[in-house]
Design brief:
Elements lengths: L2 H19 L11 H6 L5 H14 L1 H9 L4 H9 L3 H13 L5 H18 L9
Helix pairs in contact: 3-5, 3-6
Length: 128
């Protein structure tokens, strides 16, 4: 290999490591009482999770989960394991759906279960 090219690559890598290792200044400020009192009590994730769990606890949703061969406890565990963005999307879709739109929620949960099972994160469905 060309020694000049090796020297350039080593030099760039070394300078990148040194740049990352340099301390950066932090800025801090005081939080006023008004900002603290205006902050919402509780977590937005908790509220979204509660909304989705209420929807999953409905009798018609439980029935549709059973029809599709999904255990309700597994679905609840998968919902609890969703990332913040996925949970936010799911909770927003629940709010936007009409009364019969709960099937879309079931479909979304089912798709998430299939993807997680295919990737190997969970073993929801039994393979032969």
């Amino acid at each position: 290999m060309n020694t000049t090219l090796v020297k350039v690559v080593v030099g760039v890598t070394l300078s990148a490591f040194l740049t990352v290792a340099l301390p950066s200044p932090a800025q801090a400020g005081l939080i006023g009482n008004a900002a603290l009192l205006d902050a919402p009590q509780g977590s937005a994730r908790d509220a979204q999770l509660a909304r989705v769990q209420v929807a999953l606890a409905r009798a018609d949703v439980q029935q549709q989960l059973q029809v599709r061969g999904v255990d309700a406890n597994d679905a609840a565990e998968r919902v609890a394991a969703l990332s913040d963005s996925e949970l936010s999307t799911l909770a927003t879709r629940i709010d936007q759906q009409p009364a019969g739109g709960i099937l879309a929620l079931i479909g979304a949960v089912f798709v998430v279960l299939i993807i997680l099972d295919y990737v190997g994160v969970t073993k929801v469905f039994r393979h032969r």
